[in-house]
Amino acid sequence: MSLAMTRPNGGQTALLTLLRARTFVALILVFGFFAVQAPNFLTPENMVIITKHVALNAFLAIGMTFVIITGGIDLSVGSTVGLSAMVAGGLVLYGIDPGFGLMDLGWSIQFNTLEIAGLTCLVGIFIGAVNGWLITRAGVAPFIATLGTMYIARGAALLSSEGRTFPNLSGNVDYGSQSFAWIGSGAILGVPFPIWALAVVAALAAYASRRTTLGRYIYAVGGNERGAALSGVRVNRVKMAVYVFSGLCASIVGLIIASQLQASHPATGESFEMNAIAAAVLGGTSMSGGRGRVGGTLIGAFVIGILSDGLIMMGVSAFWQTVIKGVVIIAAVVVDQAQSRLQARVALAQEAQAGR
Description:
Blueprint (H helix, E strand, L loop, with lengths): L2 H4 L3 H11 L1 H16 L6 H26 L7 H17 L19 H24 L5 H20 L20 H4 L1 E2 L2 E2 H19 L1 H11 L1 H6 L4 H27 L10 H11 L11 H20 L4 H38 L1
Antiparallel strand pairs: 1-2
């Protein structure tokens, strides 16, 4: 192979740089388009609303990012959101039936706001653990395992209220649950609490992915699972951890939505998994595993959020919005594949040039 054939040219390098920065470029283009075309898009009130919407998707997308990096997928997050919202609503309104017919006599186990939040998060952790067990111990493919739990969780949400809404989740002063609404609607220093919560989770996730042993193991499993296992990485524990984290993120979203609306419905979270996957892939997470960053996922979540809210403000049909999101997901995967191929060619050329 000649030197002319192996030396990476400036065009390839520039194109690779552009592909790596595609999420940020997409964010600028989408933001600029709606700033011009959508009325009142740039108002402070609308920016706060968009950020709150983005926060919900970003929670799911961060959890999904770790799952995809390991080479898996989690289709159950939307249903986990719905079940978690119903659990939170049920705990606020009714507490837990102690059995023995005591609830018919007006006796029940009641919880304060912090306890309700903790129990709701346990729902997501449990579903994530079930997904992890099915994949690592039962040998079920991630797509099938999480598809099954998606239906189970959605069915459980419907059964919890026979398809009805749990309304008026204002809490009860006597039980210390009167602050439940603050989780979704409260603010610290003028910034909504869900945004603070997202900032904390995102910072911890980014730190864990880059600065901890578990983070290195996650990338190792996604890059070469067999090689990671031969190197002493406990692959099953790593996979279990990422699915549990994904379930936890989903339960947090369900808790926030129930708190914001002060009501919970079993259909909450439908198709949320698609937005999460779109944000992760658009943010540079490779569907083949081994590559992805929390920062890129956050930008991807902003792109999806701005796109959704901007289309609504422009009066675009919800049906067309679904079509556009599908196109975005396909385009993101195509671009990711193009980046992988170009990156491999540039790396090969650089190695060949260094060998001379």
